TrEMBL record, chain A:
InterPro entries membership: DNA_methylase_N6_adenine_CS (IPR002052), SAM-dependent_MTases_sf (IPR029063), TRMT11 (IPR016691), TRMT11_N (IPR059073)
Family listed: Belongs to the class I-like SAM-binding methyltransferase superfamily. TRM11 methyltransferase family.
EC numbers, comma separated: 2.1.1.214
One Gene Ontology cellular component annotation held by this UniProt entry: cytoplasm
Keywords, alphabetical: Cytoplasm, Methyltransferase, RNA-binding, S-adenosyl-L-methionine, Transferase, tRNA processing, tRNA-binding
Keyword hit for tRNA-binding: yes
The protein's name: tRNA (guanine(10)-N(2))-methyltransferase
TM spans (from-to): none
Broadest EC class assigned to this enzyme: transferase
Source lineage: Eukaryota, Fungi, Dikarya, Ascomycota, Pezizomycotina
Residue ranges constituting the tRNA (guanine(10)-N(2))-methyltransferase TRMT11 N-terminal domain according to the UniProt record: 1-164
GO biological process annotation, one example: methylation
UniProtKB/TrEMBL annotation, chain B:
Gene Ontology MF terms in the entry: protein heterodimerization activity
Keyword hit for Iron: no
InterPro entries in the record: Trm112, Trm112-like
Listed name of the protein: Multifunctional methyltransferase subunit trm112
Pfam families linked: Trm112p
Family: Belongs to the TRM112 family.
Subcellular location(s) per record: Cytoplasm; Nucleus
GO cellular component labels: cytoplasm; nucleus
Keywords: Cytoplasm, Nucleus
Amino acid sequence: MDYLVRFSQSHETFRLPELESLAVIEGIVMKSPFCIVHLPSDDAAKRLIRRSILVQSIHALWGSGPDLAAVHAAVHATTPHLWAQYLTCPFKFTIDSYQGSRTAEDKVRIINSFAYLGFAGPIRMRDPDEEFTLFEDWEFNSTPLGIPDPKHYYFGRYLGSGARDLPKVLDLKKRRYISTTSMDAELALVTANIALAAPGKLMYDPFVGTGSFPIACAQFGAVTFGSDIDGRSIRGDEKRKTLRGNFEQYGLLGGLGGMFTADLTNSPIRRADLRYDGDGVTGRLFDGIVCDPPYGVREGLRVLGVRDPEKSPWVIPKGKVMYKDPDFIPPRKPYSFLAMLDDILQFSAQTLVDGGRLSFWMPTANDENQEIAVPTHPYLEVVSVCTQVFNKWSRRLITYRRIPDKEVDPEAMKAREVATPVGKSADELNPFRKAYFNKFETADGSSDDAS
Amino acid sequence: MKVLTLNFLTCAVKTCKSSSDSFPLHPKDAELVSDDVELNPQLLVNLLPRIDWKALRTTSTELGFPELPEQPPTAEELEADEKMLKDLHTLLVETQMNEGKLVCGHCGHEYAVREGIANFLLPSHLV
Ligand SMILES: C[S@@+](CC[C@H](N)C(=O)[O-])C[C@H]1O[C@@H](n2cnc3c(N)ncnc32)[C@H](O)[C@@H]1O
């Protein structure tokens, strides 16, 4: 049967990738990539969207068309065998007008045109057993333009809703411990969906900060790991406002696997060299890696090490003497953003199981000439690229799938080894940082703050 | 930090990566705590192929847990063995290392663990 998915009006480029990811999680085959999807059953339809952040509801589609006559014809042609089940139950009939509106009389007239269905049960506005909805898709601005009718109608029986309430549950405004770079709850949850977080799965965030992504993944039942070069971001105030405290607040401690202080470029995570004949699991640890890497705009991107050992010859000997002191802060050097992205891809190729996903956020300028290309890796296939647009810059959520070793092109690996960029200066290889300061720095410096 | 995490962590020093002595890290002065977590067989079965069993046996013994069998169970064996599920759940998922050190068996470097958070930052002569 066909089902109508009613999306919410936010984050448009994320909606289909989210829905397609949920189809993977539920093992449901979805034929059409559009809002009308063909699914095996009502049950599959409900399951498909039950944890969707960007779908409002799903409906069994009884008929659709450019005008009401076409809708009625479709309902007559395909659904009479279904009507008998709903003759006596309490029900509700609504009109959902997108970008348009109807007078009350109009609505009654339209609803009455469905009288032939023969539903004689009590009408109940609250908690009906069944809900039938006529969706109207109007032209943008149709009311001021005086457009009399919608461009399309869909009529269907309500089956279930998405998880639009979850962003409120994890709302940053009510979270114990956040920082300026905490990811907002809605997008963290969408990211978790797209990365296929699910019960029993293992997810990792190598730039964990205050833990927004692990929390979202744990909310969907995953066990989560995270690390950050800045241990203070994990510890918070070491009392109530800590990353662990956030998990506690939401009753998610079972999903808190382990958090530690580490630099991604000197990671303690166990991993083996890439090969062409692995079994797809052994030696790999994670089902998903989700993160918002540091862009290096404000402070510049840093990793462990000394920039120029000759210019500051005392740094290394001092470290040798001091490093066991619990208060010793290891030196850091500037690092390039592109090299860091490449490190993330390489790390993910090594640690994700076959079919496991890497989803990360990346900023880019809106100006096409300054756009940063989607990074590639022979072991990772791009699944989706979603864009959230701000005034002068955008950020993209890029998602990859770890492909089986056997499908990897060894030639592409060889080419990569030759071409891998290694950057020293923070500016030189950080096109986003450069663009940020040169071109789209706002005059008052207030809007569009990247971090 | 769940004990499971110890099975994923090796010495961060690059020159140690090639040595088999750098994994697993050895807990020292470990203070363990336990969280009540509902048993999830699906998680344990999912974990099985990713766990380095030999390393887990070492960690289990070093933390004072009963000795694990020499060979890991297969997924089917694990699903059917309630005691094994329970034991692995207690060790890997419920038990946490809260304080202490993790020591590399190759270079001897000690990584401090405070309030469940291990610190793997290295001084410049080791990166
Ligand atoms: C954009 S923030 C991520 C915020 C996080 N998603 C949250 O919800 O709080 C980037 C994080 O990367 C960390 N970071 C910077 N350089 C790093 C490195 N070399 N290795 C690991 N983490 C690093 C920063 O300390 C910062 O917490």
